[in-house]
Amino acid sequence: MIAQLLDGRIVANAVYHDLKNEIDQLREDGCEPFLTVVIVGDDPASKTYVRNKHRACEKNGIRSETIELPAETTEADLLGLISELNGNDDVHGILVQLPLPGHIREDRIIEAIVPEKDVDGFHPVNRGKLAAGADCFEPCTPAGIRHIFKHYHIEPKGKHLVVIGRSQIVGIPFALMMMQKKEWANATVTVCHTATADVSQHTKMADIVVLAAGHPHTLTGDMIKPGCVVIDVGTNRVEDAQAEKGYRWVGDADFDSVKEIAGMITPVPGGVGPMTIAMLLKNTVRAAKLLHQK
Fold this sequence. Notes:
6-stranded parallel sheet; 3-stranded parallel sheet; Rossmann fold; alpha/beta
């Protein structure tokens, strides 16, 4: 039996459908949701992500702009731009595409964005609220995974959920979300990372495995129990002479072996990726509503 594919594009389209009424209502009230994305340097992957975000905004009635800065931009200049965007009442969401060049401290840039425009959910205020179970802007990828759970009726409550990876973008915030006594959460959570002696010891007992390690073949079919749900956040470029571009994108799971054992699995691409963008748009619309009501 081959695992059911969890198609993030279908779930994202459902989110966009629900957002349409909110966006239309805001426009009627004289408020046009507006997202500004700042990208520093020429990283090809970052440019692709930003382009996809812009297209999604354009398609769904959200105004967006991309400010491209050269790699040699100073930290002071970037902070100055963020200060201007913070004070611009027309801008509802601010996103600075990561990673940044090495001479710019990411934590200083993230902290400079006012929390009410932090549609990435990375500001310490939003992180603190997330940890406390309070209302906040949730990081887009973890929020997107939870929407996949809802859409496909994957109930985490009481289940053993293993997260592989402890980044501030996915692993840690998602673990915090899943531990809380809320709907579509309330799981028993284990977080594995580079210092975990035997990851398979944990994944073999898991009902749900969420992969956010950033390495291909982190999870293989012999590491999970039959029927396990596998959510693959990984996006890894691997060389492939057979592919048209000479490379292809794969997740953190060894898809061919895992799909033979798992009950459900997200594909790469087309799984979690579309949901990350959908949650960014959802956060932007929410920011527009909150700021418009002030």
